[in-house]
Each structure stands twice: as structure tokens, then as C-alpha cells.
Specification:
By secondary structure, this protein is an alpha+beta fold. The chain contains 14 helices and 26 strands.
Length: about 500
């Protein structure tokens, strides 16, 4: 997949060389749903911002325990990062993952501190082959003093990072090249006598080699994959969102039909001290959901496949190195991990096995915590006296009642404006559409399916409460997805 462009080059491509972008797959003019302003509007507005705007209460830089999202019926939410690169990816750490022959320790410290500050419970690392294929597999765990090795059958398969407050983060190694095996137990079997070719496999046989090495096989950047290819590979997991696709004009235009130019112009405003813009809200400027990925997921599900979908952080610390107004780089690991994550619905103790079981069984939510942590969300099905969890199968004969509980924003300061929400149930269609079958703007939703199908829940939010943090950029506040749930399967 394409390497993410540094901001300066991306700006040049977007603002000065847009004609070099490949044509949109839809063959229609690119759109931008952030209020219709163009790059010149944003540039002029730089000098029109109030010098000393009133300041809202501080927006939290850290996250609460994932358990505030949900803890019921023996299951609890586990904050999970899937798809992240650190010191064993050639393009991480501003292209300098190794320094003087060893890992870039400042970059690694930034990575580890971010996991602690955002209360991540488990991270599935996905390093590129260029470096990963050259080191003993055990080095991918990046063990440091105080870390706890995770062993299986006498082999190192992960580690637990200790945080200053006692929180511990489970780190599981993996790779991202053409395919994205996660939670590898060892290097895959060689191809053509070398590991690099094995890691660059992009077919069903390669996927099977990764599974034999203990991994689940994910496909990243689904927007760039034809459906026929996905059907052939039969991945265990796919991405339904990847932050890289929002920021790289070579992807955003051709695959998402999204003009990223105005967003790049607005990003520059967050570098200026005194604008009143909170850099934590940078995500609002460029965030676009991927209807491309969502549509392919709908088709695959409607065809009868069980494939969980996740959000890919794709964090590298390699695209926005310039400090923003708060003194922290724009693409810091902490910032990216705080913006969104996956919440695995785990039963019992968090272990490698329980995390993989939750993912394999589609007990996962994609949550955009840039807008706040959604407390109390749940999506269940009632069949008689039994409560069924996300990812479960049931029949029409059981008369399932699908129930979505509307969440609220964790610890929302009462002085802030009130967000509005829409709670929805949607059915996957073979055409790639998601048909809304039930919805509410004011509360919870209950729905009894009369047609067999695959039904997911979603909460959309208009985050009015972030407006005070975006003086001069209020136009970017619009309805966005807050929670994507894995589906229920009604046969």
C-alpha cells in the first residue's frame, strides 16, 4: 500500500498538482463535506481569527478505562489498537526507526507512553517486512525493563508493558504488507528461501501460511481492493476505516471521492498559538468515513461471509512532525490512539487467546473517541429469556428483538453545548448498501427483523460540544459516525 506523504509534499500534491491524482473511481468531481470552503478561504481566514477567544474547559488528553464503555453479562470492553507501526517499520519515526544500528529510542518511548496515556489494553502491531524480516521474531516485542513476557509453549508471543499508574498493555506482534497478519506467534514459513517474499504474499496460499504462524489474517486499505480479490483471499478481518486514507490525496481522491485540499490548509491553522483552536480537534478537520469500505463489507456479509471489520490506526509518527499549538506533533502516537480505537467485548481475563476469540467472533466495536467516550452503548438481541451478544447467530423463528442502547459522552462538562445523536439499525445488502430498518433521534432502538439478514448498529453524533474548541472552524462540526458495531446474524 502507498506510503503516507509528509505534510509538505501532500500539500503540494493537493493544492498545486491535483491534476496528477488518478481519476475518481466514480468519475465525478471530488467533494468535501466540511462546509464547502476551499483552500483559499482557509488561508484568508488565518488572519481573521479572534486573537483572544474565550476558552472552554480543558479537553482531556488522556482516556478513561475502556470499562466505562461497557461491562455487563460477564463481558467488558477492551480498548484495542489494530494496525500500528513502530521501530521495526522502515517508514516509521519520520523514516528513522533505527538510529546508530538500534531502535530509535525517543520514538519508541513516545509509542509506549501513548499506550499508557490512552489506556490501551491490547495493541496488534503491524510492522512492514523491510525490517521485520531481518530480525529474530522475538525482537518485534521490543521488551524493555519491567515488561512481562507472554509465553506460549515455551515461545515468546507477546509482552505486557507496565504503565506508571499500574495499567498494563498487551502487545502482540504482526505485519502489514500486502496482507496484514495480526498476533503472529512466529515468522511465517519462507518463500523462495527468504522471509521478505513470505511477508509480501498476497493470495490465499500466503494467507494460509500466516494462519499456520498463529495469526488472524486482516486486509488493510479495503478501499483499494476489488471485491473479487477479497472473496479470493477470504480474510479473517477487514478494515472499515483507515486514517491514512483520509490524509493521502492519492487515496482520498480516487477511492473515497474526497478532496483533502481544504483539510490540509486547515491543518496549518492548528500550528498557530493564539487561535484558540484545540489541536485535539484536528481529527474533525479531515475525518471522512469510508463508504467504499462499508459498502464492500455489506456485500461480503450479505453473501453469507462472517467477517469482523475494524478501524485501522496506521500510526507511524511520520507525516505531521511539526508541533501544533500545544507543543505536540500533529501525528503523535498519543493523538492518533486517542482519536479512535476498537473495543473488543472480552469475556473474563484479557489474554492473547481471549482477545483473538473476541475478534474472531465479531465481538468488536469501532469507536471514534475524538468526540468523547461513549458510555453505556450496547447492542444485543433477545430471544426468549436469552440475551445474545454482538456477533451471534440466531434464526427468524426465534423472533429476535434487536436492542441498541443510546450512549452518553463520558464526563461531559455541563457548560458545553449538547451533542445530538441518531441511533440506528442497518441491514447489509448484496449491492453494498446499508438499509436503515430502525432509528431514533432521541433514545434507544428496538427492532424485530422480519427478513433474514445481517444487522449492525450505529450511533451517529453531531458533536456540538466541540464547537467551542474550534473558533473560526465551526463549519467542520457536522454529523459523523461515533460507534460502529459488529452485526447480528439472523438466518
Amino acid at each position: 500500500m502507498k506510503k503516507l506523504l509528509p505534510l509538505g509534499l501532500a500539500l503540494a500534491l493537493t493544492l498545486g498538482c491535483s491534476s496528477k491524482n488518478p481519476p475518481s473511481s466514480a468519475d465525478v468531481p471530488l467533494v468535501n463535506d466540511l462546509g464547502g470552503a476551499d483552500a483559499s478561504d482557509a488561508a484568508v481566514a488565518l488572519d481573521a481569527i479572534e486573537e483572544d477567544p474565550p476558552r472552554p474547559p480543558a479537553w482531556p488528553r488522556e482516556l478513561p478505562s475502556a470499562r466505562v464503555i461497557g461491562d455487563a453479562r460477564g463481558y467488558h470492553a477492551v480498548r484495542t489498537i489494530i494496525h500500528a507501526h513502530s521501530v521495526h517499520s522502515h517508514d516509521a519515526c519520520d523514516g528513522q526507526p533505527y538510529v546508530d544500528g538500534g531502535p530509535n529510542e525517543p520514538c519508541l518511548r513516545s509509542f509506549r507512553a501513548a499506550l499508557c496515556r490512552t489506556q490501551v489494553d491490547v495493541i496488534f502491531l503491524t510492522e512492514h517486512a523491510g525490517l521485520l524480516a531481518t530480525i529474530p521474531f522475538e525482537e518485534a516485542m521490543q521488551l524493555r525493563p519491567g515488561d512481562e513476557p507472554v509465553m506460549e509453549d515455551g515461545h515468546l508471543v507477546g509482552s505486557r508493558i507496565g504503565c506508571p499508574d499500574g495499567h498494563r498493555v498487551l502487545l502482540l506482534p504482526g505485519a502489514e504488507n500486502e496482507l496484514m497478519p495480526i498476533a503472529l506467534q512466529h515468522h511465517p514459513a519462507m518463500v523462495n528461501g527468504n522471509l521478505d517474499d513470505a511477508y509480501h504474499a498476497d493470495d490465499r496460499a500466503g494467507a494460509q501460511r500466516f494462519r499456520e504462524a498463529g495469526a488472524l489474517v486482516a486486509v488493510a486499505h479495503v478501499e483499494q481492493r476489488p471485491l473479487a480479490q477479497l472473496r479470493e483471499i477470504e480474510p479473517d478481518v477487514i478494515e472499515l476505516y483507515n486514517i491514512h486514507a483520509n490524509l493521502d490525496p492519492r487515496i482520498a481522491g480516487p477511492y473515497l471521492n474526497y478532496n483533502v485540499g481544504p483539510a490540509f490548509a486547515d491543518i496549518l491553522r492548528f500550528q498557530r498559538v493564539g487561535t484558540g483552536l484545540d489541536p485535539e480537534m484536528l481529527f474533525m478537520v479531515f475525518f471522512q468515513e469510508s463508504t467504499n469500505d462499508l459498502g464492500k463489507w455489506a456485500t461480503l456479509l450479505a453473501e453469507g461471509r462472517r467477517i469482523p471489520a475494524v478501524g485501522g490506526s496506521d500510526a507511524h509518527e511520520n507525516v505531521l512532525p511539526t508541533p501544533l499549538a500545544d507543543g505536540e506533533r500533529g501525528d503523535s502516537y498519543r493523538r492518533v490512539f486517542r482519536w479512535f480505537s476498537n473495543e473488543l467485548w472480552v469475556q473474563g481475563e484479557l489474554t492473547r487467546a481471549s482477545a483473538l476469540d473476541a475478534l474472531r467472533q465479531s465481538r468488536v466495536l469501532v469507536v471514534f473517541e475524538a468526540f468523547g467516550t461513549p458510555v453505556g452503548f450496547s447492542y444485543t438481541a433477545q430471544t426468549g429469556d436469552r440475551i445474545r451478544e454482538i456477533g451471534e447467530e440466531m434464526t427468524l423463528a426465534e423472533a429476535p428483538v434487536l436492542r441498541v442502547t443510546r450512549p452518553h459522552v463520558n464526563a461531559l462538562d455541563p457548560s458545553l453545548p449538547t451533542p445530538t445523536m441518531r441511533t440506528r439499525v442497518l441491514r447489509a445488502e448484496r449491492t453494498g448498501a446499508w438499509t436503515e430498518v430502525a432509528a431514533s433521534d432521541t433514545g434507544d432502538v428496538s427492532y424485530t427483523p422480519t427478513t433474514a439478514g445481517v444487522y449492525r448498529a450505529e450511533v451517529r453524533i453531531t458533536p456540538n460540544h466541540v464547537r467551542p474548541y474550534l473558533p473560526g472552524l465551526e463549519r467542520v462540526v457536522r454529523e459523523v459516525p461515533w460507534v460502529y458495531s459488529s452485526p447480528m446474524y439472523v438466518r
